[in-house]
Fold:
Amino acid sequence: MHTINADLHCHSVVSDGTLTPEALASRAHANGVKIWSLTDHDELGGQERAKMAAQELGMQYIPGVEISVTWCAQTLHIVGLGVDPHNSDLLQGLYQTRNGRSNRAKAMAAQLDQVGIKDAYEGALQFVGNPDLISRTHFARFLVESGVCKDTNEVFANYLIEGKPGYVGHEWANLSDAITWIKQAGGIAVIAHPGRYRYTSLQLTQLYEQFKDLGGQGIEVVTGSHSPAEYKTFAKVALEYGFLASRGSDFHDPQESHIDLGLLPDLPSQLRPVWSVFQ
Ligand code: AMP
Ligand code: MN
Ligand code: MN
Ligand code: MN
Structure:
């Protein structure tokens, strides 16, 4: 059960990835993925295409989404797996969550303008596949293409992050709402890449407790943004809180993503994989 190749986190052109749902499905399949989920940020627009493509290739498909949440004054990502992509509560919640991205993007561009980077809004828009979902990733691509930075890592060290030009804080969904929408759509809520947040250890403990109290059930243990030491840390968290464990590359683009679809270590063996719920 543990050695099955499941990749339950990636992004298409419907959010901030560069490949279509069909191209992602082919790439996942070519890399040996057997159970796959497309988890675009705050959007379900790619779900039907992803499911069709996965089924044609003989992969099991789990509908997914990655919801932007604000918790303790920081952005937290909650993945919903096994959600009904037609559920109106979830659709409405995601619509509200996306709302405000265009204004935020214009404010980001105004800041970049002040440090001499002109027309960043128009520049970022050239990389956007879904006009409702302009994100920092699209600005990052513009900053690389226009020669301001050599790659997206350099962008996220010098721009678009708190304290640097181009950062505009945003109030996303609240944790309780995000979990409720996922549950109302029949899905399982999963804490995405817990190793990426800058919460204190006390805050992280409070997050796990609150998340569980609100009906959250899963945590990503093996992800593209965790180190091997973090696999161990979050495996312990999964065992301690009784969370289902997830595995996902968080793939966005062949050049930008350092981990390709499906090419991750297996989950540590004691854990209960989140996909066991869907089998
Ligand atoms: P947004 O939802 O507009 O705040 O954009 C968040 C997205 O920016 C994430 O989903 C990542 O794709 C990207 N991102 C954020 N931080 C980094 C980073 N340090 N390196 C690469 N990509 C990042
Ligand atoms: Mn992203
Ligand atoms: Mn994320
Ligand atoms: Mn992601």
Summary: Residues 16, 41, 68, 135-137, 152, 156, 252 surround adenosine monophosphate (ligand 1) (CB under 6 Å). The chain is about 40% helix and 15% strand. The two ends are 10 Å apart (CA to CA). The CA atoms of residues 3 and 112 lie 46 Å apart.
